[in-house]
């Protein structure tokens, strides 16, 4: 990956950390899960409004490192308006993106989500990037809590 791309991805992560999108509670949420990463203390509460198999709204609150907050913010942008099936597919895509270096060629198709690919250089931080996504899966399957452990 070129250093220009790495700089762009870092800027995306920093922007989503400083100005997280959809950072608020969602009182009328139909689905909710708390995510916890005990390794670094990240905590995410993820809220969704799902109607007729479509995620109409997704928000989060919590505290944690820049990567966990940026990943949650990216998740909310990516999945608002998506079907539940698309959300499950996005979860798998993010897991693949963070663990599979052969995905380099596909990054252009991932838009801002590709910014998470830089986390692969820091294996200990992958759990930070996946926390919100594990909370998503927990919320969609009716579990109240998700952990990266």
Topology:
Layout: H1 3-18, E1 31-37, E2 42-51, E3 54-63, H2 66-79, H3 84-99, H4 126-140, E4 145-147
Parallel strand pairs: 1-4
Antiparallel strand pairs: 1-2, 2-3
Helix pairs in contact: 1-2, 2-4, 3-4
Structure in a nutshell:
With 149 residues, this protein is α+β, with helices and mostly antiparallel strands. The chain contains four helices and four strands; from the N terminus they run H-E-E-E-H-H-H-E. It has a single domain, classed as Sufe protein. Chain: A.
What are the salient characteristics of this protein?
149 residues; alpha+beta; Sufe protein. Chain: A; four-stranded mixed sheet; 4 helices; 4 strands
């Amino acid at each position: 990956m070129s250093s220009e791309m790495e700089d762009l991805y870092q800027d995306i992560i920093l922007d989503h950390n400083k100005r997280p999108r959809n950072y608020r509670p969602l009182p009328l949420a139909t689905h909710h899960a708390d995510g916890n990463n005990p390794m670094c203390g990240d905590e995410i509460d993820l809220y969704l409004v799902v109607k007729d198999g479509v995620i109409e709204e997704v928000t989060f609150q919590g505290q944690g490192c820049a990567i966990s907050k940026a990943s949650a913010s990216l998740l909310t942008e990516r999945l608002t308006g998506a079907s539940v099936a698309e959300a499950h597919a996005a979860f798998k895509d993010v897991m693949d993106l963070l663990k599979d270096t052969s995905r380099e060629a596909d990054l252009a198709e991932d838009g801002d989500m590709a910014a998470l690919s830089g986390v692969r250089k820091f294996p200990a931080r992958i759990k930070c990037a996946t926390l919100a996504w594990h909370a998503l899966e927990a919320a969609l399957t009716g579990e109240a809590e998700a952990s990266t452990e």
